[in-house]
Amino acid sequence: MDQYAKKWIKEAGAKLRESFATELNIETKTNPNDLVTNMDKETERFFVSKIKETFPGHRIFGEEGMGHDINDLKGTVWIIDPIDGTLNFIHQQRNFAISLAIYEDGVGKVGMVYDVVHDELYHAIKGEGAYLNHYPLSPLSKVGVEEAILSINASWIVTNKRINPAILAALVNDVRGTRSYGSAALELAFVAAGRIDGYITMRLSPWDFAAGSILVEEVGGKVSDLFGENLDYIKGGSLFAAKPGFHEFVLEEYILKR
Ligand code: IPD
Ligand code: CA
Ligand code: CA
Ligand code: CA
Predict the structure, then answer these.
(1) C-alpha separations of 88 from 9, 34, 132, 184 in Å
(2) Which GO BP terms, alphabetically (predicted)?
């Protein structure tokens, strides 16, 4: 299964790179900043047709809705975000990824995040290690808050409905530095690769984190919602992924304490 996934994700990535030379067709979804392109749709359609043809018994949970109507993760379910970071895809032609995960009865077995522009495939099979292309990713080591690079969207420090903005402001003040890349899947892959130490976000859908959470956990990182609870792989929600130690510390000393 993972060999097919790898082949298809590379093929889809090549088509996305080729699309830079053509004009995009851009539409809005729920609001003027929620965009979708012909390439988001084309990429999801590509995966859906390959999966249906090769694994007719499997189900597909994708952002653009070309798979199945999913209300549970029974059996084998492919969770796909054809382009994670569509705004970056449109504005920058970089900092976006294809995210593909395979869950069996609710357990994440295969996680792949493909940074198309850099040709970097982050992939993990549960229990068999995580890799960046052919290089194994090292187990994550503990980091203190004062040495941590935290990925967080700056607008959440100013206004937030789910958590007192002062809590995030204190955390942002104490860490070594902050980043914001605009692709949840890539940010989770960066946590897994040790490029950043943590990632906090307020509202994601299952396809944004289904693959990245497998990567992070495979190298010993922690993934939960912002309050330390398990993620909801059907409804989505907030997310906090981080190196061991840092995750517990932030929950105890910042988020749950104040
Ligand atoms: C978005 C990206 C972004 C996150 C948004 C997502 P999309 O996914 O992951 O980083 O902040 O919440 O919706 O729509 O570009 O696939
Ligand atoms: Ca989207
Ligand atoms: Ca996404
Ligand atoms: Ca998307």
Answers:
(1) 19, 12, 22, 12
(2) inositol metabolic process; phosphatidylinositol phosphate biosynthetic process; signal transduction
| ipTM of this complex | 0.98
Tell me how far the alpha carbon of residue 200 lies from the centroid of ligand 4, in angstroms.
18
178-232 tens-digit pLDDT: 999 999 999 999 999 999 999 999 999 999 999 999 999 999 999 999 999 999 9
**CB 84 less than 6 A from any atom of ligand 1:** yes
How many angstroms separate the CA atoms of 180 and 31, rounded?
Answer: 21
Domains in the chain, CATH or no CATH each: 2-136 (3.30.540.10), 145-255 (3.40.190.80)
With the most atoms of ligand 1 within 8 angstroms of its CB, the residue from 79, 100, 204, 213 to mutate is 204
For the stretch 67-87, pLDDT in tens is 999 999 999 999 999 999 999
